[in-house]
């Protein structure tokens, strides 16, 4: 974006002359000035991150690693008090949990992603994720926060990252936080357990 210095000088001289005369812009002129400033600030010039340049995430720890998942897919978060194991399901299906009368399947991403297992403790949380066709809870060792991450700061995933398939990852931030692709996890056919 280039600056027209001649126009800046002309406007500065006009403003100086108006101040010298003690004149202030009319209410209509002030509105026009503010509207023009708002348009200039809203214009994307490629140097700043726009409104869509951020992704809101919920951060959590899983097997001593920092993870994040897009907040748009998170319905709610609850402490894991108790759950009912389900026989005959894949090992990554921890069981079901009753959340205010609604039965939710609980998926242990540590097993799903082949991460080192850590025993269940007092800090375990259930993050209920959903889209238009699927809903289930994922286990987190602990929640660490919520933040907006600039999309530009998310780098492509490393193919060997902790054994997690790249199809489940949006990428990794400069701080080493692994950003999961909730859409890919929710759409994975292996998570759907069908009874024959």
Reconstruct the topology from this structure.
Layout: H1 5-20, H2 27-42, E1 54-62, E2 65-70, E3 74-79, E4 93-99, E5 102-107, H3 109-112, E6 125-130, E7 135-140, E8 142-150, E9 169-172, E10 178-180, H4 182-187
Parallel strand pairs: 2-10, 5-7
Antiparallel strand pairs: 1-2, 1-8, 3-6, 4-5, 6-7, 9-10
Description:
The protein has a five-stranded mixed sheet with strand order 8-1-2-10-9. Mean pLDDT is 79; it is low at 44-51. It is of the alpha+beta class and 196 residues long. The termini are far apart. The chain has two domains: 5-42; 51-191, OB fold (Dihydrolipoamide Acetyltransferase, E2P). The protein has helices at residues 5-20, 27-42, 109-112, 182-187; strands at residues 54-62, 65-70, 74-79, 93-99, 102-107, 125-130, 135-140, 142-150, 169-172, 178-180. The chain is elongated. The chain contains four helices and ten strands; from the N terminus they run H-H-E-E-E-E-E-H-E-E-E-E-E-H.
Number of spatially distinct domains:
2
CATH level-3 fold name of the largest domain: OB fold (Dihydrolipoamide Acetyltransferase, E2P)
Which percent bin holds the helix content? 10-25%
**Overall average residue pLDDT:** 79
Order of strands in the sheet with the most strands?
8-1-2-10-9
Would you count the extended β strands for me?
A: 10
SSE series: HHEEEEEHEEEEEH
Separate helix tally: 4
Taking all Cα atoms into account, the compactness measure Rg is 26 Å
Largest sheet composition: 5 strands, mixed
Rough shape?
Answer: elongated
Separation of the first and last Cα atoms: 63 Å
CATH superfamily of the largest domain: CheA-289, Domain 4
SS class: alpha+beta
């Amino acid at each position: 974006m280039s600056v027209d210095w001649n126009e800046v000088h002309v406007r500065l001289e006009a403003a100086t002359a108006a101040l010298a005369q003690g004149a202030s812009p009319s209410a209509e002129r002030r509105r026009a000035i503010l509207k023009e400033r708002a348009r200039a600030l809203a214009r994307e010039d490629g140097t700043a991150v726009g409104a869509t340049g951020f992704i809101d995430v919920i951060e959590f720890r899983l097997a001593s690693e920092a993870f994040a998942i897009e907040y748009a897919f998170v319905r709610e978060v609850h402490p894991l008090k108790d759950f009912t194991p389900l026989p005959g399901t894949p090992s990554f299906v921890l069981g079901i949990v009753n959340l205010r009368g609604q039965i939710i399947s609980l998926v242990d991403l540590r097993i799903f992603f082949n991460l080192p297992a850590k025993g269940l403790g007092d800090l375990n949380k259930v993050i209920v994720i959903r889209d238009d066709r699927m809903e289930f809870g994922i286990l987190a060792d602990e929640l660490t926060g919520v933040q907006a991450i600039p999309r530009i700061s998310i780098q492509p995933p490393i193919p060997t990252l902790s054994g997690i398939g790249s199809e489940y990852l949006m990428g990794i931030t400069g701080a080493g936080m692994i950003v999961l692709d909730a859409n890919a996890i929710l759409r994975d056919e292996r998570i759907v357990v069908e009874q024959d």
